[in-house]
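tool_call: predict_structure(chain=1)
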Amino acid sequence: MNTILNAVIPEDAIGVWWLGQSGFIMKNSKNVTVCVDPYLSDSAGRRKESSKRMVPVPIEPEDLVADVFCCTHDHTDHFDPETVSRYAARGRTVFVGPRSVCRHFEELGIPADQTVLINAGDEKEIEGIKVRGTFALATDYDSLDGIGFLYTFGNGKKICVSGDTSYANLICGVARYRPDLYCVVINGGYGNLDVHEAAIVTSAIEPKTVVPTHFGMFPGNTVDPNTFPRALEAIACDVSCRIPRVLEMFLV
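tool_result:
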């Protein structure tokens, strides 16, 4: 975490670090950090053998520091109660999510005046960053209000994360915002987009760069990320694809 906090980000860029699964930390030149969907424990693995972590925890929850803490929906690998409970910097943080997420934040002791409700179509400015909820098609009945997020930073850079979603044309609606970076689920299990559907969505949105997510964390729910750029190539989508590595910084 200190490496992230000490990183110097150019004014015309955003630093991005992948935390594994669908988790990211983003940081601007003003040292404002945004964390989305951090899964920083093995809480799911303690309940189910096929959900044990395949990779080490990159940052302990006690060491995590975020000005804005977002969760797309209330699944353990996106909203991890253990990560939130052990998160020590909560006093400096704004917590963001749809209705079920905000309710869960408050159940875990986050004061209501530190939570910001954002549903699909809503936009709020938080710490100088415009945070918009984007459409996601629910993958099960336990999380019907899941969303994606579109972050528009003060320098104009736009980063969109899909959240968990099944295929629907409405997902492609973020094309109107012309994101610089699109982070999209590709695992194909439990109702999520598979690599071919994710490629079709990417082709419709036309971001400058796409990053596949939701792989390499659980043995019972993963996919080879190298199949995604091949799926992009198969439909003649020439969007630049970057396969992330945990805690390897890249600039948008």
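agent: The chain has a mean pLDDT of 97. Proceeding to next step.
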